[in-house]
Every structure is written in C-alpha cells, then in structure tokens.
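Bug #77: duplicate submission created two jobs. Keeping one. Sequence:
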Amino acid sequence: MSTLPKPVRTFVVPLYVVLLLAALAVNVFAAEADKSVGGKPGGKPAVAAPALPVEVVAAKTGDMGTYLNGLGTVVPLSTVSVKSRVDGQLDKVLFEEGQIVNKGDIIAIVDPRPFEIQLAQAEGQLAKDVALVDNARLDAQRYSTLFKQDSISKQQLDTQESLVKQYEAAIKADKAQVENARLQINYSKITAPVTGRTGLRQIDPGNIIHATDVNPIVVITQLKPISVIFPIAEDNLPRALEKLKKGQPIQVEAYDRQRSRKLATGQLLTIDNQIDVSTGTVRFKAIFKNENTELFPNQFVNARLLLDVKRGVVLIPSSAIQQTQKGTFVYVLTSSDTVTARFVKVGETQKDTTSIETGLAAGEQVITGGAERLTDGAKVQVKKSPLDNSKDNSTLVKDNTTQKFK
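Kept job's structure:
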C-alpha cells in the first residue's frame, strides 16, 4: 500500500469500517429475530412445554368428627389381693395362673379341721346351757307356786328367776360361738371376690398362712368391663361437660401407641372433679366392654373422644393440601386442563382425609399427585388417582355410643 498514491489510501480505510459495521448489524438483527419467535441461535423454533402428569380426586360431601386426643392408661375397675381370713395351713390351690375365675368360685382351701373342732365344742356348750336353762325355768315355776302358798321367801324366787336369765344369756353367747365356728369353716374356703383374671400365685400349698400376712395368695384383676383414664386440656372441658350434663353418650376410641390400629370402642363414663394445675389438664374416664380382652391393665393407649360431628362438609384427601408462606392452598383442575392455585380454610383432619371449611365446593377436582412441579396456570395431563374410587367413603364417623355397659 505504500506504493499507492495518498488519495487512494485515504478512501480505503473508511470502507473497511463500513463493512465491519454492516456485519455487526446483520448479527444483531438475526439474534432479535430468534428471540421474537422464542427460538435458539441458529434459527431453530422453540418447543412448547409438555403437559405435566397429575392425579386428581373430586371433592366430596360427608361427615367429619371433632375429636379430643389424649394418651391414656388402661385401668381395671377392680383389682383385689386375695388373702386368707383365718390362720392355718394352705391345703389346696384350685386355680391356674392366668385363669379366668368367676365371683364366688373356690380358689383355695385352708385346713378346716381346727375350725370343725371349735364348732363341735361350741355346739356342746350350747346343748349344756340349753339343758341348764330348761331346768332353771322349771325350778322358777315351782318357786313361784311355793311363793304364792307363802312357803318360800320372795328372795328365793327372785334368785331363781335371775338364774334363768343368766342361762338364757349364756345360750346367746353359745349360739354366737357356734356361728363364729361355722364362719371360720366358711372362711377356710377362699373364694374369688370378683370375676377376673388371676395373676401369678405367690403362696404355695403347704405353707402356714395368717390373716395378717403382707403377701396375698394371688391378685385377681377384673377385665370385663375395663376403663381407660386419659388427660384432656382444660380448654376443652366446657364443651365436654355440657354434652355430658345433657346425658348424651360420648364415644371414645382406643388406639395402639402408633395410632395405626383401633383396639376398642367405648363411651365416656365420667370426668374428674378437679384440674391438675401442674399440667393444665383434667382426667377423663371411659369404659369399654372389652369382650375379647383387647385392652390389658396398665396398657398405654391413645384415646380419641368424639366431641362433635360436622354434617355435610367438603372432604378431600390430605395429600391435596399445599402449604406456602401466604397460607394453605390446593391446585384445582380447570376445564382447559390447566390448574389454578386456590387458597382454602382447612377444618378437621382424620387419617388421610381433611375437611375444607371455605374455598372449595363439592365436585371440584383437586390435584393429589404431581403437585410438586406445578405452578399456577400450568398445563396438565390427568391420570386417575388411586385415592379416587366409585364408593362414597366420606363419612368418617360411626355412632357406637348407644351400647350399654354393666
């Protein structure tokens, strides 16, 4: 270029600048065109986002119970330590450990021979005193005749009548001794004071036992019916008392520790007369028939007290409930196969079902599966939810409170 004339070099430099600016303008225009059609560099058109697969369930109408929950303890209505009322040798044991015995059954026998001898002695003394009183009465009759004939003094007659009264008093004492001896013989047959289950035997046959012994022969625990005592917060006490005062039966259910299996259904028996100030709770006592011994003494159970039943509420699976900082919402399926987020007011939750107080109507379809990838207005592809079935299982309360307990 050094050989070109000076005017020519001045013209060539601006031409290079113009060509460079034109190339940059073409690239910028192509990039803007790609953005306008949503494509990528290179002119490829954008691909629409695919519909997300979701599971839906239609909201239903049903009944939902309001429950009060408490960790309770199974307490038998009667627990009796069986002891001997008499002193003697334990002759026989007539029960097996763990056996169910009925009230009045003979479960052990103390050697009755010493008491039989005492009975014979008391009966002999009674017969002797009866003979004496008979003779004293005859003498009193003779003295009375002689006194009328003025053959004896009044003092002799009074002494004889007093002797008759002494013998009559002795007969009363003799009869008491006879009855006491017979009672000791009855006490030598130890009977079950209640119907229940026997525990482990603590005294073996052949031992000498006394009425003052500390250890019992056996402990009998009543199992049918049986009670459960559980604490409830004092804030819930007024509603429970109001229903109890009206005489309305209040259903109570007992579940295992994991609350996965219902053990028994009973009813509220009574409420304690004071609040525990250290815990702010009051003790409730429920009674259960316990026909199949589902409940065992001192067992820990989860008690659920049915306080009220809300009829005709909207019910949905609990898996449809979504949480955000702004509140609780559900994804509702629209007619255009899209979802919309709707805030709702949640009521009671029982097992896998939740009641909705406001924000949702029966029949509307809510998302129960695949909601973690959704946004408001997202396109979805509906799949049938395993939670949806043709049968209406929306009633979560069964009324078992009319059963009677004895």
